[in-house]
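#struct-help
A.M.: can someone run this one for me? Single chain, 193 residues.
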Amino acid sequence: MRIWKIGYPEENNDWVQMEDVDCLFELEVLNGQPRIDEWGERRLIGIAGTRPPLRSDSPRFSGRALVFSDRAKRCLADVLEGCVEWLPVTFHGESLWVAHVTRIVDCIDYDRAVFQLRESSGEIRGFLEYQFSEDLIRGINCFGIPEERVGLPFVSEAFKRRVEECGLTGLKFKLVWDSELPQGSIVFRTVCV
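D.P.: on it. Structure tokens below:
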């Protein structure tokens, strides 16, 4: 089993944010709470010079949420079922979707993972190596972990494969865990907030 972290390639120059800053904060902080009941009509604005039309199926966005075009939503809806809620937004009249991650899984194998602690509180500050409990994430295609309150989600091989099969643009994937590789094979640095 492989787990990937989503990111954005350098060539993805489409960058959007919520027009309502309070709503932006709600989507940035991980708590797994659905937002659909309070959502209403929301608009995105372009930042860093982004103007319509968008060139990618997934423009850059902050927080745990991802933004997708209608085409991307159609391609990914079944793969993301039970992991995200689809929140409608518009960007200069173009319909888009915020895929707000609601699936939070306490799945870190603390005996094998390598992490740094905050000296003052003992909280996890960042990971040098993720190690997951495979049984806890089997069949889950998109999720967050409680230790990382902001940042983009983890995704499965099935999600990555669907993005590639559909030819969706705007995302990149970084391998963060492979159950077939020995411990110490995938090492990097993250900082948790």
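A.M.: thanks! The two ends are 27 Å apart (CA to CA).
D.P.: also worth noting: Residues 70-80 form the longest helix (11 residues).
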